[in-house]
């Protein structure tokens, strides 16, 4: 098999993988996922590209104008470079901090519910929080998340119920049930802590999935928190989708979440 045929097969394989990923993720969690949708579109584009290449019609994508061709090449290069750099940061920050015991409060970030059902992504966060709270009985915890599309209760309500059902005393739990984004999770949580403890430099433990930790830390520090990371794992069936979605979310948060 020559190199050209091998490249065509790889492109076709990646395209099919992207489409399958979308349907698997939709089956696991029927709530719309932007990251999965992006991968679906990319998969379809790759399949079309592979079919055109196999049929010898790659000239459709050739750009004769040298300036336009170079601009497209530069943009593609910058896109690829930014993707690699951001993914590197996501992986680097998906580690637990060593001096986590210095924190004053824990914040567990909400994630999409299915009705009032807690999916694995959020369950991992809650279980990680419970594990640490059991070892530190004096620590309070904020559960943060409002009610979004496809949810019959607020994320904070479902999270509080889960913690109580798993042995966390209700008096230790503070509910923030208005937030609709990661930025609002921290903004509204800080307002609550400012009201309770005064406007000071709050030291918090952030509990979220590993892919989400870099952006969470960035936003929390912008809001005014000192952050200690307590990441948890991610469902492997949605890991690729989460990383792709997070790339776009990091760019959005870097520009707008201030």
Automatic annotation (TrEMBL):
Any Pfam family hit: DUF218
Position of the signal peptide: none
GO biological process, one term: peptidoglycan metabolic process
One GO CC term on file: plasma membrane
Gene3D superfamilies per UniProt: HUPs (3.40.50.620)
Domain DUF218: 104-237
Entry keyword annotation includes Coiled coil: no
Swiss-Prot/TrEMBL keywords: Membrane, Transmembrane, Transmembrane helix
InterPro entries: Cell_Envelope_Assoc, DUF218, Rossmann-like_a/b/a_fold
Listed transmembrane segments: 7-28, 34-52, 72-94
Protein name (database record): DUF218 domain-containing protein
Native source organism of the sequence: Acetivibrio saccincola
């Amino acid at each position: 098999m020559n190199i050209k045929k091998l490249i065509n097969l790889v492109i076709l394989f990646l395209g099919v993988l992207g489409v399958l990923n979308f349907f698997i993720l939709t089956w696991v969690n029927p709530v719309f996922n932007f990251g999965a949708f992006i991968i679906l579109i990319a998969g379809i584009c790759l399949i079309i590209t592979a079919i055109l290449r196999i049929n010898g019609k790659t000239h459709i994508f050739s750009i004769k104008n040298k300036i336009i061709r170079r601009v497209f090449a530069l943009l593609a290069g910058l896109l690829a470079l930014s993707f690699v750099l951001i993914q590197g940061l996501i992986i680097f920050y998906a580690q637990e901090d060593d001096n986590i015991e210095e924190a004053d409060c824990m914040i567990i970030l909400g994630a999409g519910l299915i009705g009032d059902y807690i999916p694995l992504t959020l369950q991992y966060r809650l279980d990680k929080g419970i594990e640490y709270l059991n070892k530190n009985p004096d620590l309070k915890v904020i559960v943060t998340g409002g009610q979004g599309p496809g949810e019959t209760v607020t994320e904070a309500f479902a999270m509080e119920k889960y913690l109580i059902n798993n042995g966390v005393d209700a008096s230790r739990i503070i509910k923030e049930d208005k937030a609709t984004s990661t930025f609002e999770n921290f903004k509204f949580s800080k307002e609550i802590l400012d009201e309770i403890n005064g406007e000071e430099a709050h030291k918090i433990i952030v509990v979220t999935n590993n892919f989400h930790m870099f952006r969470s830390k960035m936003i929390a520090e912008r809001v005014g928190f000192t952050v200690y990371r307590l990441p948890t794992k991610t469902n492997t069936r949605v890991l690729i989708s989460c990383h792709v979605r997070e790339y776009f979310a990091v760019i959005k948060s870097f520009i707008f979440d201030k």
